[in-house]
Amino acid sequence: MRRLVAPVLLLAAWLALWGEISVVNVVTGVAASVIVSFFYLRAPRGGHRIHPIGLVRLLAVFVWRLVTSSANVVRTVLAPTPARLRSGVIAIPLSDPSPLVAAIVADAISLTPGTLTLEVRYPGNDDRSRPPSLYVHVLGLAAVDELRDDVRGLERLVLSAITPDRTEHATTTEEAST
Amino acid sequence: MSAVVEVIAAVLLLTGSALALVAAIGLFRMPDTYSRIHVATKPATLAVVCTVGGAMLEVPGLSATTKLLLAVALQFWTAPVASHMIGRAAHAAKIRPDEPWVIDELAEVEAAAEATADDT
Amino acid sequence: MTGVAVACGVMLAIAGVLTTAHVLRSRNLADRALGIDMLVAIVLNGLAVAIAVTQDTLVAALVLIIGLLAFLGSVTIARHIEERGP
Fold first, then answer.
1. How far apart are CA C8 and CA C60, in angstroms?
2. Looking at the 3D structure of chain C, how many domains does it have?
3. What number of other Cβ atoms are within 10 A of residue A53's Cβ?
4. Inter-axis angle of helices C29-54 and B62-92, nearest 10
5. Which residue of C49, C78, C82 is in closest CB contact with B51?
């Protein structure tokens, strides 16, 4: 069932591009999306479970953050004060090693007022089994700890939408070996 | 086309254009590259979303509406990534602001990484 | 609707002039890449206003394509700056 997600989304995009749902469009859409999905898209390593309700909530949070960030920018541009222009780069350690979760959190941070992700680094020597740290440029630097809590809340929100099933992999291999 | 929808579409178009203007003004008022990234990309994204949304409300027919909807989704999805990539490139190319940052926690990590790389 | 079109056009034109001036006066490539991304966003805005005002949906696909290509261009310039300096 999970392998059908990509072809269905591609079919929806194809139909949206052509603008009308007719037999010809659906047939060519199915052919095109099947060809693209099964010959050009590799399955990502490590499965993630997607919760639709969490995903909708995440999308709403994204849109709300974009709106508030634009309002914040309007204030900063039309009335710049030194406090609003103070900037710095802070490190925010995450709690989950999955790169997809880190990417979505970094995306959300870039939409949040005043913050922009600059780098994502894994600790040590690019050790992928430990959670990474996001290095975030902040405009209007006020309370660093509040920012870290905000990002952790974001990460919980993302995890409630897309959970990497790493632990489940471990348990199934355990059961298979015993 | 009901009058309410027309008014909403007009408001959306005006808001989008005003946001684009604010973003352009911000390019001049911000002192360094990184703050310009903040100011230029976020309102520009919302501006495109607003104006294309206003256009979606105005045009008749489904065909153009779905294309515009795809355009909105695309812009919303790719703009933060583009802003992050420009920021990351600027940092990697050692572009720094004229006034140094108040807190800079990335410099220490990079110095440590360079030290270990020099050792090997 | 023509009043709205004129107002939007004026605002977008001023934004375009300001952004072009910024591209011309910027000292490093990252600033210019940012300015060009903004210019494309202004063009997208202008196209959307034109679609709304003239009810001509021929250019709806253009909005999508330009958005896609602009993103591709931004990412390419960013990778170039990363590897070869500003």
1. 18
2. 1
3. 9
4. 170
5. C49
> pLDDT exceeding 90 applies to what percent of chain C?
59
Question: Can you tell me whether residue A90 is helix, strand or coil?
Answer: strand
Q: Does the beta-carbon distance from B102 to A73 stay under 8 Å? A: no
What distance in Å separates residue B78's CA from the closest CA in chain A?
9
Q: Is B54 on the interface with C (CB under 8 A)?
A: yes
Instruction: Check residue C55 and give left, alpha or beta (phi > 0: left; psi -120 to 50: alpha).
Output: left
Disruptive mutation site among A70, A111, A119, A144 for chain B (greatest number of B CBs within 10 Å) = A70
Interface contact C22, partner B, CB < 8 A: yes
Residue A136: strand pairing partners: A90, A117
Q: In this predicted model, what pLDDT tens digit does every residue of A112-141 receive, in sequence order?
A: 888 999 888 887 777 777 888 888 888 877
Full set of structural domains in chain A with CATH: 2-40 (no CATH), 48-166 (3.30.70)
Let me know: does B106 contact A119? Beta carbons within 8 Å: yes
Checking if the pLDDT of A42 tops 70, the result is no
- Put simply, whether A121 touches B (Cβ < 8 Å) is yes
Of B112, B77, B95, residue with least CA distance to A118: B95
**pTM of the predicted protein model:** 0.85
Using a CB-CB cut-off of 8 Å, the residues of chain B touching C29 are 93
Domain range for C64 is: 2-84
Percent above pLDDT 90 for chain A:
4
